[in-house]
């Protein structure tokens, strides 16, 4: 008689629980006054989850508060919410400067103004707030935020030494180039991910982090070229062993 033992390992995409680093990835962007971009949900996102997006740069762990976070003209961040669960693999697009709407869900706040001279997009949940009594530019405090993803483009890459101007940035705490949650595309100012769209969340996240899987240009790229629906496969949950 065979005895089956199931050894559990890995995990599967879950609709419950808070978002974590790598659960969302940016998969397209245009600068050149289009200021549109798209992201993919690499796990199911529960209804009424609030996701934030900003192009504010980071220096030594602090956000540039005057850059579309706390500025008086266009206070941010740009936020996304939806009244229904969002299935894993769904691509959501921000429709730029003139339309100003999500393809799925609703927005509030200001919106990014992506620079042809270099910029970044950060995705997070929670709140980046200003430090009480602090008057310097670098006063965006992310203690109440969970960083989900960061994309860098149109410059020479992440700059963890002198970065933090309007066109360069440090990698924020909570994100990592080695864990594929902080990605530099290349020096061009528009692009979209053109790699595989079927795989586990980990495999897809890793593929999105490879710059050669992107199609880029210094001219805006039509959103009709952007990736569509992804198929996010469950991680293998276990292995069956037969003892005879």
Structural descriptors:
2 helices; 17 strands; 244 residues; eight-stranded mixed β-sheet; mainly beta; disordered C terminus; five-stranded antiparallel β-sheet; disordered N terminus
Overview of this protein structure:
- With 244 residues, the chain is mainly beta.
- It has one domain.
- It is built from 2 helices and 17 strands.
- The chain has helices at 96-99, 201-208, and strands spanning 3-8, 24-30, 36-41, 51-54, 58-59, 62-64, 78-81, 91-94, 106-108, 119-130, 138-153, 182-184, 190-193, 198-200, 214-217, 231-233, 238-243.
- Strands 4, 5, 6, 7, 9, 10, 11 and 12 form an 8-stranded mixed beta sheet that branches. A 5-stranded antiparallel beta sheet has the order 8-3-2-13-15, with no helix packed on it. A two-stranded antiparallel sheet has the order 1-17.
- It is globular.
- The N and C termini lie close together (6 Å).
- 41% of the residues are buried.
- Mean pLDDT is 88; it is low at 1-14 and 239-244.
Indicate the low-confidence ranges by residue numbers: 1-14, 239-244
Number of helices: 2
Strand runs, count: 17
Shape: globular
The number of domains: 1
List strands and helices in order, with pairings:
Layout: E1 3-8, E2 24-30, E3 36-41, E4 51-54, E5 58-59, E6 62-64, E7 78-81, E8 91-94, H1 96-99, E9 106-108, E10 119-130, E11 138-153, E12 182-184, E13 190-193, E14 198-200, H2 201-208, E15 214-217, E16 231-233, E17 238-243
Parallel strand pairs: 11-12, 14-16
Antiparallel strand pairs: 1-17, 2-3, 2-13, 3-8, 4-7, 4-10, 5-6, 6-11, 7-9, 10-11, 13-15
């Amino acid at each position: 008689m065979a005895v089956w033992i199931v050894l559990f390992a890995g995990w599967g995409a879950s609709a419950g629980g808070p978002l974590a680093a790598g659960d969302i990835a940016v998969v397209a962007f245009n600068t050149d006054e289009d200021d549109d971009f798209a992201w993919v949900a690499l796990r199911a996102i529960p209804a009424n989850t609030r996701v934030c997006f900003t192009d504010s740069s980071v220096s030594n762990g602090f956000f540039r508060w005057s850059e579309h976070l706390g500025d008086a003209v266009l206070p941010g961040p740009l936020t996304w919410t939806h009244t229904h669960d969002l299935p894993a693999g769904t691509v959501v697009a921000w429709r730029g400067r003139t339309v100003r709407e999500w393809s799925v869900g609703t927005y509030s706040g200001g919106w990014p103004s992506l620079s042809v001279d270099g910029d970044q997009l950060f995705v997070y949940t929670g709140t980046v707030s200003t430090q009480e009594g602090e008057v310097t530019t670098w006063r965006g405090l992310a203690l109440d935020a969970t960083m989900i993803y960061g994309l860098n483009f149109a410059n020479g890459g992440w700059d963890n030494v002198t970065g933090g101007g309007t066109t360069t940035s440090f990698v924020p705490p909570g994100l990592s180039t080695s864990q594929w949650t902080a990605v530099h595309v290349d020096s061009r100012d528009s692009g979209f991910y053109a790699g595989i769209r079927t795989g586990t969340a980990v495999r897809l996240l890793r593929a999105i982090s490879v710059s050669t899987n992107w199609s880029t240009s210094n001219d805006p790229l039509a959103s009709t070229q952007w990736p569509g629906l992804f198929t996010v496969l469950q991680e293998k949950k276990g292995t069956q062993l037969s003892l005879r």
